[in-house]
Amino acid sequence: MSDLNVALVLGASGGLAQAIIGELIADSQIDKLIAVSRNPLPEHLAERYSQDTFQWLETEYNETDMATVVETLQPYRGCIIRVVICHGILHSETIWPEKRLEDISADALQAVFQANTVVPTLWMKLLHPVLKGPERCVVAALSARVGSIGDNRLGGWYAYRSSKSALNMMLRSLAIEYARRVKNVKLISFHPGTTDTALSKPFQASVPEGKLFTPQFVAQQLCAIMESAEINGELSYLDWDNKVIPW
Ligand SMILES: NC(=O)c1ccc[n+]([C@@H]2O[C@H](COP(=O)([O-])OP(=O)(O)OC[C@H]3O[C@@H](n4cnc5c(N)ncnc54)[C@H](OP(=O)(O)O)[C@@H]3O)[C@@H](O)[C@H]2O)c1
Question: Is the pTM of this model over 0.70?
Answer without folding.
Answer: yes
